Structure formats: structure tokens, C-alpha cells
Amino acid sequence: MMDRLRARDREGLLVFFPLQSRELVAIAPELAGRDLHGDIHGLEEGTRRVWKGADLLPPVLSRLPRWKLVAPLLRLPGLSHLVGSLYTWRAARRFQKYGKQPFQDRF
Fold it and tell me: Helical H runs in the chain?
């Protein structure tokens, strides 16, 4: 997901850090103590709110100029659940593809 978001962020509005980065907790202390494996996490700089997994898509896409119109659709009750389920399914398959154990299903 990071690679896809990075490709759509043509204006450099998003900042990405790998889990292994020593700077991560210094920059985002809100992430300290959280299990960051399995889901992508995001921190809204202004409010310091933490977003996780598919819930991260609407706030991120709303900031990307060419994707702003998609963000409100992802907040629709039925669609947001579907997107969350698809995200979880895809993330589990990604781990299988690269030979790692999938994280627990949350269906």
C-alpha cells in the first residue's frame, strides 16, 4: 500500500517511514507501544490522530489532488466495511506471497 500511495503522491505530501526506522518513535510517539505489523499506519500531523489499515485510505486520499473525489465514497458505511475486508484479505495474501506468516484474520 505504501508503494501505491507514494506513486499517487506527486506533490510529496506524504512522508513514509519503515517500521525499522529509529526516527519513527521520535517523530510519531503516538505509535510507540502499538503493534505496527500487518497493517499500514498513518499519523495526521495536525491532530496527531493515528489511522490504521483501510481506515487510513480516506484521510490520505482526501489530501491527494487527483484522488479527493474517491475519499468520501470510502467513508460510506457499507463500502467502508467492504474496503476493510478487502484490505485485510489482500494484506494476508501479501504475507503468504513473500513467505511470511499471515497476521490474524479480523473478519
Answer: 2-8, 23-27, 57-61, 71-74, 77-97
